[in-house]
Amino acid sequence: MMRRSTLTTGLYLALLFLSGIAVGVFGHRLYTLNSVNANANPRNPEEFRRRYVAEMRTKLKLTDDQVARLGPILDETRQRHHELVDKHRPEFKAIQDEQVRKIRAILTDTQQADYTDMLAEREKQRQRDRHP
Questions:
Q1: What is the pTM of this model?
Q2: In sequence order, what are the residues at sequence separation of 6 or more whose Cβ sits closer than 8 angstroms to the Cβ of residue 45?
Q3: What would the DSSP string read from start to end of the chain?
């Protein structure tokens, strides 16, 4: 009876050890994927476009001619998108300004100073993301 108990305990310990290895490998893989994605800035339009074209080329098996014809389509779409954003920028700004005003109304004086700093830092980060 004692031998069977020792064997069972040994098997449980081995299973626990192997489970730990599996969790470690999964965690490392997840961490590595997130690190790679964080380094390649998806907000960078050129990087997004490069990835998008590469994905389409691979998944759809596009020919070189199709890839060449895809470029002007993406250029036109980008231009139209920029025009729409520019047209509605004042409305977006008004909504953002209203949000800031409402948030400031619920903050203490100390919090408002910190909020001003936070907004300035976010604006710097946004500028860095737009113009890397």
A1: 0.51
A2: 78
A3: -HHHHHHHHHHHHHHHHHHHHHHHHHHHHHHHHHHHHHHS-TT-HHHHHHHHHHHHHHHHT--HHHHHHHHHHHHHHHHHHHHHHHHHHHHHHHHHHHHHHHHHHTS-HHHHHHHHHHHHHHHHHHHHHH--
Q: How far apart are CA 120 and CA 29, in angstroms?
A: 35
Please report how the helices 64-105 and 45-60 are oriented relative to each other, as an axis angle in degrees rounded to 10.
Answer: 140
Confidence of residue 38 (pLDDT cuts 50, 70, 90): very low
Angstrom distance (rounded) from CA 53 to CA 46 = 11
